[in-house]
Amino acid sequence: MTIAESSSHHVYVGSDVVVKIIDAAGHSRLNREIALAPHLPAGLTAPLLDSGLRRLGTRNVRYACYTRVPGAAPGMGMSGIDAVTARSLAEEAVQRLGRLHSWIPAGHIDQILREPLDHDGFTSRAALVAEVENLATLDRHETIPRRLIDGLTAIAELAPQQAQVVVPVHADCHWDNWLVHDLRVTALLDFEWARFGEPADDWFFLARFSGPHTQTVLDVISLATMTPLEILRAECEVREATYLASDLCIALKHPETYSRMAAERLHALEELIVERFWWRHTQ
Which of 60, 64, 101, 157 sits a CA distance of 20 to 30 A from 129? Predict the structure, then answer.
């Protein structure tokens, strides 16, 4: 088996199976994925073959073994993918996410999706305003230009009063978590952040990490969901502001550990506020 890159697990890929392993004392999100996998809409993700706990030396480890689905991830930014292919993949991804959003989980699966999860996503205007204020307080050395803080504040003050929790969402469906084979989408992976939310919680990830194809993906989502582009842009903007504010707060609290993340998020914040990322094709 070969080792696959992962920021939170040990992942091993064989010819027929993929195995994810994590210290059982770590985060519990893999438990969520294991519980959800057999109940998700058919054909949406890789089939779960086995899971459990094993003793490894002095530690307990949790594992999940999946059927290996053909394909490779397009990757963040969809590098090297032409416009026609990007549109086709986006249409398939939106269709699959639509199946997830229309899925009606029952019993204990419904309860799992409703369990509290510190997902750093948008929950309410008040929470976002508070997070931006916290960010300004933590930025004692003024590493974040004031215009960027003011831009986040402006977005927060126009955000919806409350996020809805109405449909199952993946909540991490960037292009590193999709598999594509022969120019067709074959699976959506990593359901560890799945929860109840709004469809826009997924549309944000799909569009934001499409690189030069962001506008194309927004058009595909808008057409498929009959959502006006202006509303879709605003929903995505609020969600990006929320994630960036949260991540920058973490980076400021732990500067030695998250220096690289801080630089990446600061660049993204510049794009969001100064370049008006979600609106630049409307000018």
Answer: 101
